[in-house]
Amino acid sequence: MTAFDAGGLVGELEVTFDVDVLVGAYPDRDGPPGTPESVLAALAGHRVRAGAVASLRAALFDVRSGNDEVLSLRGTIGDSGSGGAGTGRDAAGAVDVIPVGTVDLRDPIGAVREIDRLEPLGVRAIRLFPDEQGVEAGFPSVRHVARRAALSGLVVLTGGDVRRFWQPFSGLEAKVVFLDTHFYHLGDFLVAAADEPGFHTSTRLLNSPDALETVPADRLVFGSRTPHYEPIVPLLRLATSGLTPDEVAAVAGGNARRLFG
């Protein structure tokens, strides 16, 4: 019996931008500690060259210190372990760190205040953790934050059920990546996205045989949720998809770079 060789099937696929990377740990579940060093090493080991990195500390405990931790990764680790300018890099794999600001949806006034603080620091995206923070799509705080992000053209990376969380972003010309789109709900995403050119979906949970091929390639962005999800799964699905080489390159980073500007 021949052993399954996922690495062989992934081949030479290189991801130039992963939109779903976390540092930190979930205190209520088993899992990796998510230290920056280990996360960057994991990305490099899977030939992921850049990641939009957000902090679980910011999502679960303290917004400001967690965001500052992510900001500190930018430009602190060079190719040989020394400081670099503008991007953080894993010493072995040269992984660019794109800091993502996290806000607390339970505090809408404070959330907008944090965006006001982060934007002049060069942050181009914010991340929402509605499930972890116990916030529903219909809460006024979500629409409030959505409006503020759209006003500045910030990219919003949001968790939550796409069947509900599309609504707070509708009609705002918002740039949104739905990180938790499941292939069971892909039809709902496609219907919602038809009238919203800024709506995109992560590939992480689109693992059915034809899910990637069903979505217009320019609406797909690669997401792995390293280190709290196994990156080989979305890598394998993308590498073995029916997309053209140009489409694979767009999904593996080109679309995300266009979004982030």
UniProtKB/TrEMBL annotation:
Keyword Disulfide bond annotated: no
A single MF term (Gene Ontology): hydrolase activity
Limits of the Amidohydrolase-related domain: 211-261
InterPro entries: Amidohydro-rel, Metal_Hydrolase
Keywords attached to this entry: Hydrolase
Taxonomic superkingdom: Bacteria
Name of the molecule in the record: Amidohydrolase family protein
Origin species: Nonomuraea fuscirosea
